[in-house]
Amino acid sequence: MIDTRRLRTLRAVADHGTVTAAAAALHLTPSAVSQQLVALEHEVGHRLFTRDGRGVHLTAVGKIMLGHANVVLAQLERAEAEVAAYTTGEAGEVTVACFATAISAVLSPAIAALRATAPGLQVRVLDAEGDHSLAMLLDGGADLAVTVEYRGGPDAADRRLSRIPLYAEPFDLVLPEGHAEAGSATLVSLAADTWIGPYPGNPVHDVITFACQQVGFTPNVVHCSDDFRAVVALVGAGAGVALVPRLALRDMALSGVVVRQTPGPDRRVFAAIRRGADAHPLLRPLLSTLRTVAASLTSD
């Protein structure tokens, strides 16, 4: 009989690529993770991983087992959701991993609305960029992630996740007052400028870089911050130009800068839950309220 806890360990190691990283995500010691893998290989009767330096890679049998693990774990999520639905489902805590702009734009208004419609639902919020929040969700550190599409991330066909689209957000150009292109700036007209943006690895960094490459240049990102208020402040100080998601500019002091709408990229924001958890009584009202708040953004 295969222990489902070992299937979770298998998936974590496959996701993170090293025993040490998987152990940290699962709040176990590396020794405990290694023991789980050895026990699973004994249960299956085949090698599931090969080691390459500090990393590990799935064997052919390991890939087969991972596919089945995703199905089994999704079914367990579904069973837990149905059991929870059988009880009242009126009270409990949901942990949400969400990036800062979406916390302000959709999650905080949703929490406020839920006080009236689902007073027993407690939402615990973890500020996490999109590339981190999905890992937290899959590792069990969050029940729901609000995140963005990004290169290298899980796609819509990923069998581990259920995705709920929320909104698409355009980017605006932010330039210092007095910039030569302030009146008619386009991406290509700023090819020679110094740029300000998030660190590499942040999904927004990838969106900005890809958008600029589409019009023929790679932005010279000299100043880095994941805080868009800091990005705009640096633009206002004349340190460079930036592309900033439009909702991040809402209610922000825009002293010393000019904001220009321009044809270009957008970021597609969605909620994600583990496959099988769709019917969970605590997730249903939260997802419904998030969709309602997100719809109001596009109608403003």
Shape: globular
User: How much of the residues is beta strand, in percent?
Assistant: 15-25%
Mean pLDDT comes to 88
Our Rg estimate from Cα atoms comes to: 22 Å
Low-confidence stretches: none
Helix content: 40-55%
Number of helices: 10
The SSE string, one letter per element, is: HHHEEHEHEHEEEHEHEHEH
Describe the sheet with the most strands. Answer: 6 strands, mixed
Count of beta strands = 10
Which class do the helix and strand fractions yield? Answer: alpha/beta
* Terminal-residue CA separation: 55 Å
Strand order, biggest sheet? 4-3-5-10-6-9
Secondary structure elements and pairings:
Layout: H1 4-16, H2 19-26, H3 30-44, E1 49-52, E2 55-58, H4 60-86, E3 92-98, H5 100-117, E4 121-127, H6 130-138, E5 144-148, E6 161-176, E7 194-197, H7 203-214, E8 220-224, H8 228-236, E9 242-245, H9 246-249, E10 257-274, H10 283-299
Parallel strand pairs: 3-4, 3-5, 7-8
Antiparallel strand pairs: 1-2, 5-10, 6-9, 6-10
Helix pairs in contact: 1-2, 1-3, 1-4, 2-3, 5-10
